[in-house]
Amino acid sequence: MTAPQTPSTAYLDNMEELIAARVAAASPPPPMGETYPGQDELWDKAAKLADATTDDLRHIVFDLHANPEVAFEEHRSMAVLADFLEERGHSVERGVFGVETAFCTEVTSPGYDPDKHPTVAIMAEYDALPGIGHACGHNVIAAAGVGAYLVAAELLKNSDVPGRIVLQGTPAEEGHTGKEYMIRGGSLDGVDAAVMIHGFGYDIASHAWVGRRSATIDFHGVAAHASSQPFMGRNALDAANLLYQGLGLMRQQLPPSDRLHAIVKKGGERPSIIPQETQVEVYARSLQTRSLLDLSQRVDEIAKGAAMMAGCGVEIHWDPHPMSLPVRNNETLAARWARTQARRGRTALPANTVPDTVAASTDFGNVSHLVPGIHPMVKVSPTDVALHTSEFERWSATDEAVEAAVDSAAGLAQVALDFLADEALREEAHAEFGRHGAVSVQELLHREQA
């Protein structure tokens, strides 16, 4: 047996050099004076409360890491988090917004008026990847979200800050769009902004996330004996092969923002029979919503052309789970996040420091198109460790992971409280969001089909 070729690291090495130069040139934001009365005092209290949660957050980080559960099966993980909150006096609703493994709890300020006062949602993911567990660090996300809620809840109940803070446990992000199902179940009703974090090899206030659609493409041919009567067959594997080759050839015309991946999930039964049924699964990704829909249309056209050339029928099924949209980072709130992290000794890098070619997908994109939102990255691992690898899985259960969760708990709580207390911040965040406007996945698809 020959070994596979080891990929060259030349591109990554050059990219690391570029990023290192940008990081060296970056600096934390200058100290910020109070933007509303009592902000400094509130932030100091948030930092102390976050530090006091370290042991609890360590338990969550390591417990979830040791017991990974995949999308829509996170029953134990949800129970661990919900029980933890209930033990600390918070009422938790389980199985909310139409998703069995989702949960929700909330706190309001004294005298809260839903017609006058804003609401912030803190989001926590906790699903793992098949086979390699928490290689995306959702255990850290969960700990950070729960910690942020506990900190913010304690301060909201004992301050003059008006508003409501909601913690939403959001399952099924990996390969799915759990947040979109929750949105359709009403999770964002009455919510004015949403915040969460993600572990990474860098601290980044605002990073690119691509939208993603998936398609299952079935080709229907005519079976025949591959030796005695091949001319009586119509080879569905030929159609699958033509599709795969067509996608590959199209890549040279794709803009740098786009990505295509495909696998043949069903290719026939045995060589002596011309395959009657084949199936290909395709992921289409893009940094822009419009170009994602354009890319989807091209995949449709290539699939239909492949079927025609092979003399086969074709069925194209888009989005077995709803599409995820590119993240629309709210730069106003991201700048405030960067200031929270500077106080923790972290320099949260601005947008475009790390190239947007280093981009994955998340269903938080769907949230960010409906309310102002941030999804900053927090350093958990060395810079050369990629998400969705066994190396990152190991780093997501370390002291560094716990430190990231604690720093994030402080930062998310501070941003959430600022959003409620700082009217100027809130207005600027909404003005930025309003320049693009709210849009749902269903509205986008309806426009596309019209």
UniProtKB/TrEMBL annotation:
The keyword Hydrolase applies. Keywords: Hydrolase. One of its GO terms (molecular function) is para-aminobenzoyl-glutamate hydrolase activity. InterPro entries: Amidohydrolase, Bact_exopeptidase_dim_dom, Peptidase_M20, Peptidase_M20/M20A_hydrolases, Peptidase_M20_dimer, Xaa-Arg_dipeptidase. One of its GO terms (cellular component) is cytoplasm. One of its GO terms (biological process) is folic acid catabolic process. This is Peptidase M20 domain-containing protein 2. It comes from Corynebacterium camporealensis.
